[in-house]
Amino acid sequence: MRDLRLPPLANSFVVQAARLFYQCFSSSGNDVSSPSLASPPRPVVDNDIPYERYSDAVEQLRPLFPPNCISFGADEVEVVGDIPLGAGGYANIWVATLCGRSVIRKSYRRYENDDVESIFQRYCREVTVCSQLSHPNIVPFVGFVITSNHSFSLIFDTAGHLGLREYLEMHPQADKMDLVRGIACGLKHVHDLDVIHGRLCSQNVLVGPDGIPRIAGFGSSLMMSRPDLGSDEDVVGFHRGSAPELMRPPKPGKPVTRITKESDMYAFGMLTWEIFSGKDPFRGDLDATVVVRVLKGDRPPHPKNCNGLSRQVWNMVKVCWSDSPSRRMTVGEVLNLLDAACRPS
């Protein structure tokens, strides 16, 4: 397996580099993209910022991103239309064009009173994670854009894809086992690289025109080899597939529970249920009610009138839902079970 361990960076260095970057650009509102990390910095054109200051900032930022990352100028990735395709907790999703082809641009939102350094730290983490992942069941990461007006974007080659739920509504006869297995394959790649997704749910799975599911939404992910790129406020966030240990308030003097591979597997079990049922987990309940029910041990029932959900797979889902993280299946064990379930008897 590839060794993705990078030189450790102190969290203070991330903040220091971010501050230097913003000091260089704070006087300008023009778009100036970060030069390619694989090539020398390019001079700034039509800008009052001295080239030397810009070059120094880029050199400070260079170690934050893997060398295989590609940066694009803001004018190279043109947004199509005035309305975003979608919006998440911290970013808007836009259809854009790059070199004549359609791509997706994920642009971080920033408001007047936001802590730009915290946003930049989250951005560093997502770019770093996405650049390490390469698998047929992971959204293809193309590159990134940083502009002088504190705008951060990631570029993905996922144009023409549909959200998982939208795909199932448009293709009710789709092979659900294929979708579940594809997601498991992508998650195994993620876990094999010691990355934790942190927010695996139907909103973060896209399905291409080829019917292949691809995992997206790595903004809350955690690289186990790069704890400097994570923070407690980013690693815990409620969604209907959140594991019970993430819902419990920390005991006095104890740290906040962090996401783990085991919490990913709980979310995988919930996602599998959602694929076969076609419904939101605990539909009709308020989030606070869901927390109470999950902590009491409640889980969604076996989907009614569901074709293709074998007893083996249903038992797998229930094991993934175990209250104890240590009792949950690993993604490798899940794939072995799915392969056996699909094997002709």
UniProtKB/TrEMBL annotation:
Domain Protein kinase: 79-345
The name this protein goes by in its record: Kinase-like domain-containing protein
Annotated GO MF terms: ATP binding; protein serine/threonine kinase activity
PANTHER family assigned to the protein according to its UniProt record, in alphabetical order: MIXED LINEAGE KINASE DOMAIN-LIKE PROTEIN, SERINE/THREONINE-PROTEIN KINASE TNNI3K-RELATED
SUPFAM superfamilies named among the record's database cross-references: Protein kinase-like (PK-like)
Transmembrane segments: none
Residues in the signal sequence: none
Short name of any one Pfam family annotated for the protein: PK_Tyr_Ser-Thr
Taxonomic superkingdom: Eukaryota
Organism, as annotated: Thelephora terrestris
Entry binding sites for ATP: K106
UniProt cross-references to InterPro entries, sorted A to Z: Kinase-like_dom_sf, Prot_kinase_dom, Protein_kinase_ATP_BS, Ser-Thr/Tyr_kinase_cat_dom, Ser/Thr_Kinases-Pseudokinases
Keywords per UniProt: ATP-binding, Kinase, Nucleotide-binding, Transferase
Tagged with keyword ATP-binding: yes
